[in-house]
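User: Okay, second chain of the day. Same drill as before: sequence in, structure tokens out.
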Amino acid sequence: MNDLSKTVLASPVHFLAFGFGSGLSPKAPGTVGTLAAIPLYLLLAPLPLGWYLLAVLLVVVLGIWLCGESSRRLGVHDHGGIVWDEFAGFLLTMTAAPQGWWWIVLGFALFRLFDIWKPWPVRIADRNVHGGLGIMLDDLLAGVYAWLVLQLLARFL
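Assistant: Same drill. Structure tokens below.
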């Protein structure tokens, strides 16, 4: 076990910011972090929309602090292993999504596409907003793009 793994597993702040440890993945931590968000989505999906939105809001507000604090403690802005922002972006993507695994897979793929591609203004937010808000904002914007496409597909398919 390396020093980062020990740090993440020993600290509740890092453990949550690193997506329950999923951000420790040596390859594609953002993708692994998004996969790790699926069980949380499955727990929240049966909630009425208002409660689901409240849960997402709590994940976002907590995430701004968590990501910023973890980043500060590590001394690295937006460390690649910090994936709580992926949790928030994926949960936002899946807001009011139709039920079924097909939609989860599609939501996952769309969120990863927009998170990696970073179309305007996602890229601007990624480069110019700092701290916990900056870490979260680009993923939330990617989540909005993915949500829009997912909702359009749900309406027209």
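The two ends are 47 Å apart (CA to CA).

User: Thanks, on to the next one.
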